[in-house]
Fold this sequence. Notes:
Elements: E1 11-13, H1 17-23, E2 30-32, E3 40-50, E4 53-62, E5 67-75, E6 81-88, E7 95-102, E8 105-111, E9 118-125, E10 129-136, E11 142-150, E12 153-160, H2 164-169, E13 170-176, E14 184-185, E15 192-193, E16 199-200, E17 205-207, E18 210-217, E19 225-231, E20 233-234, E21 239-240
Antiparallel strand pairs: 1-2, 3-4, 4-5, 5-6, 7-8, 8-9, 9-10, 11-12, 12-13, 13-14, 13-15, 16-18, 17-18, 18-19, 20-21
Amino acid sequence: MPRRKDIWRCAIVDRSIRDVLTDGLSGADVHWLPEQPAFTFLADPFGMEVDGRRYIFVEQYDYRTRHGVIDVLTVDDRGGVIDQQRCLEKPWHLSYPHVFEADGEIWMLPEAHRSGRLTLYRAAAFPEKWEEACDIELDCVPVDATITRFNDQWVMFYCPATSKRTKISHLHIAFAENLAGPWRSHPGNPVRIDTGSTRPGGAPVPHEGGLILPMQDCTRTYGGAIRALVIETLTEETFAA
Length: 241
């Protein structure tokens, strides 16, 4: 077990993600989720509301096994946890459970680069049961792949799992008409090289015809902060932020 450990903790903020990215957290009400058992933590939260119930999908990490799995928390209107249960577990490390709705179904695109592939999951019985839908082929094995609809097509942001450096400093983009692909790589990949704002850190938000993409600031340490990357121009040939 490592002598020095990062213990992360998730919280619910009574403010829209758009307001957080544009105005920050000053004055916002923050509801911290309960601490986890010793040597474990929750991280990478993605929220979703379905049929009037609020769910938070998280990485649950255990330092004793050095292995992450995906849990789902059901929370009430005040941010209190009603239930926590395991919803996805594999032989390899899982994190960053990016959940979203499309084509009348609910999907999850978790980070799983140690498997050597990017697998898209479909909710078989939301929120606790998921099935493999397909593997997504990109120009590299991705880290923290983040997907959104933009200009009538799917766009994916990710970092290559090629090295420790590229995982936190090289931003790649791909495009597709359908979730399963085929996916087309942006010819400018990596479109951005910067340790402070290239590794995705949450779902993109539409903004003034472009996108705001939450990014992890890894300048001093991995995941040291979240920065808003304002993408002003994004086509299959161009990129400006």
